[in-house]
From TrEMBL:
<dbReference type="GO" id="GO:0004519">
    <property type="term" value="F:endonuclease activity"/>
</dbReference>
<keyword id="KW-0808">Transferase</keyword>
<dbReference type="GO" id="GO:0003964">
    <property type="term" value="F:RNA-directed DNA polymerase activity"/>
</dbReference>
<keyword id="KW-0378">Hydrolase</keyword>
<protein>
    <submittedName>
        <fullName>Putative endonuclease-reverse transcriptase</fullName>
    </submittedName>
</protein>
<keyword id="KW-0548">Nucleotidyltransferase</keyword>
<keyword id="KW-0540">Nuclease</keyword>
<keyword id="KW-0255">Endonuclease</keyword>
<keyword id="KW-0695">RNA-directed DNA polymerase</keyword>
């Protein structure tokens, strides 16, 4: 990542945090609304963020400082939590579409002529929302106040 030299510089932590929040986090989370987050992808995102936070503080990995200690020093929000919030907001926004937009059609589309393969199925975009909100999440999302709580 190209801002590594900025984070290695002796700048105030607040400035480094602001640079991370405004330029690096949006790059990490580009398109996160449409991801189907698996445990492996969550781990990859967290690992990348932890490496960047260690670089912010100038801590080497072999020093074996816990990530909770690093997080307390940097005060940067977790990118996985942010990605899930973005996805939740997008799902609510998508369900409130009234006109027949193709984005909503793509989410609701289910191919009836094909069967899914045997074994454990891949996580779909809707599966994560269904786990939290229930099967009929689209009717619940139409009430904005109920959806945002």
């Amino acid at each position: 990542w190209s801002l590594k030299h900025v984070f290695k510089a002796p700048l105030n932590m607040e400035i480094k945090k602001r640079i991370f929040d405004t330029s690096i986090a949006p790059c990490l989370l580009y398109g996160a609304q449409t991801w189907s987050l698996t445990k492996k992808n969550e781990q990859r995102l967290r690992c990348t963020q932890h490496a960047m936070e260690r670089s912010l503080l100038g801590i080497k990995k072999r020093e074996r400082v816990r990530t909770t200690v690093i997080r307390m020093k940097t005060l940067i929000t977790d990118v996985v939590t942010t990605a899930k919030k973005m996805k939740w907001k997008w799902a609510g926004h998508l369900c409130r579409f009234e006109d027949g937009r193709w984005t909503r059609s793509c989410v609701e589309w289910c191919p009836f002529d094909r069967k899914r393969r045997r074994g454990r199925q891949f996580t779909r975009w809707r599966d994560e929302i269904k786990d939290v909100a229930g099967i009929n999440f689209s009717t619940r999302a139409k009430i904005r106040e109920e959806w945002n709580t």
